[in-house]
């Protein structure tokens, strides 16, 4: 095998695994090349974060990931003055580092952050591509290899936690969902090491449990949880025990709902 092929195979193995189901990789690549920000929408555990990690590695760019939450402020992204070694020094936040050095800054579940965060993002998501740092008096211009990516789960949206239309329209957007059954089977098998035939049964079960979303469940079974379940089964744990720990307990605290989930699982595996 040529050395170039060996190097390519090694790079592919080191890259975070992601199996595309459409044109999402090509769209992300074009958005990066054209210096456009991107918004990813989809349910929890459907592969949004893995997709971004995969694309960052594929493009050879550093990735700065921020998991957003209620207490996340603009200063957490941009930076702040800290006392170090007896003197006060400015320390860049992940967004500022990505703008200074180039790379992809990924804000996961951006709607969970405080409102002042989106205000900071606005100058970066139009043709200016600027990051004002009021504390230091700097006005940073994003380099060509900087990209801002944000994601959220529309299923959790409500009036107090949603992106304003004026913010949404600053992004190229993509919708994600759980992969088709054959693709999800291959993903679960690849990630867990469990045989594909046994993973297929888990994927079929997931389809049944996801049909309960909006009735008894707030959210359907994620691909991530299927991987966890398959991993435990592959390690020798009995199927029903693994399923309870990964497909029942994480989804609901309601005893009646848990009983219904276990009934569906027992109907599948006996």
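-> sequence recovered:
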């Amino acid at each position: 095998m040529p050395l170039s092929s060996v190097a390519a195979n090694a790079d592919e193995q080191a890259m975070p695994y992601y199996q595309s189901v459409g044109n999402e990789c090509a769209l992300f690549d074009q958005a990066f090349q054209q210096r456009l920000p991107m918004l990813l929408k989809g349910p929890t555990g459907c592969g949004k974060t893995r997709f971004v990690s995969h694309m960052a590695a594929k493009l050879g760019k550093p990735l700065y990931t921020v998991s957003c939450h209620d207490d996340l402020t603009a200063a957490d992204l941009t930076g702040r003055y800290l006392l170090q070694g007896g003197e006060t020094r400015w320390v860049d936040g992940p967004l500022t580092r990505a703008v200074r050095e180039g790379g992809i800054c990924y804000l996961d579940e951006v709607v969970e952050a405080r409102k002042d965060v989106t205000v900071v993002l606005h100058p970066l998501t139009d043709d200016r591509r600027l990051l004002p740092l009021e504390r230091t008096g700097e006005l940073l211009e994003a380099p060509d290899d900087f990209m801002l990516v944000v994601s959220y789960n529309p299923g959790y949206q409500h009036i107090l936690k949603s992106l304003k239309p004026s913010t949404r329209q600053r992004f190229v957007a993509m919708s994600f969902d759980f992969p088709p059954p054959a693709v999800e089977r291959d993903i679960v098998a690849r990630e867990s090491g469990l045989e594909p035939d046994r993973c297929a049964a888990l994927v079929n079960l997931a389809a049944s449990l996801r049909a309960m979303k909006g009735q008894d469940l707030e959210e359907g079974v994620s691909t991530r949880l299927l991987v966890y379940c398959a991993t435990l089964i592959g390690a020798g744990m009995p199927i029903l025990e693994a399923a309870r720990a990964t497909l029942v307990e994480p989804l609901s605290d309601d005893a009646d709902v848990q009983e219904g989930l276990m009934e569906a699982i027992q109907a599948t595996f006996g």
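The CA atoms of residues 216 and 256 lie 9 Å apart.
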